[in-house]
Amino acid sequence: MYKPSIDDMLAGKQSRYSLVIGVAKRAREISDDFNERGEICDDKPVLLAVEDFKNHKYEIIEQDIND
């Protein structure tokens, strides 16, 4: 089983909750893209989404609570 380092993906600024939500939303986008094209994905969308965040293709931007 593939276990990427959460600390590497968080980069010290996001909460784990934000990371989970971001990965889930990205996985849904990936799944929807494959369904629209009628293709079958060999890898699980969640693993592809984790790779996107790990490779810094996507970034989580959290709103400051004081705003």
Overview of the molecule:
The chain is mainly alpha-helical and 67 residues long. It has a domain at 15-54. It has helices at 6-10, 16-37, 45-54. The longest helix has 22 residues, at 16-37. The radius of gyration is 13 Å and the shape is globular. The protein starts with 5 loop residues before the first helix and ends in a 13-residue tail after the last helix. The model has no long low-confidence stretch (mean pLDDT 83).
In short:
The chain is mainly α and 67 residues long.
| Count of extended strands | 0
- Class per helix and strand makeup: mainly alpha
Q: Mind telling me the C-alpha Rg?
A: 13 Å
Low-pLDDT windows of residues: none
What is the helix/strand order?
A: HHH
Shape: globular
Reported for the largest beta sheet, the result is:
none
Oligomeric status of the shown chains? single chain
Strand content: under 5%
* Alpha-carbon distance between the two ends: 40 Å
How many helical stretches? 3
Share of helix among residues? 55-70%
Average pLDDT confidence is 83
Fill in the keyword field for this structure.
67 residues; 55% helix
What secondary-structure arrangement, pairings included, does this model have?
Blueprint: H1 6-10, H2 16-37, H3 45-54
Helix pairs in contact: 2-3
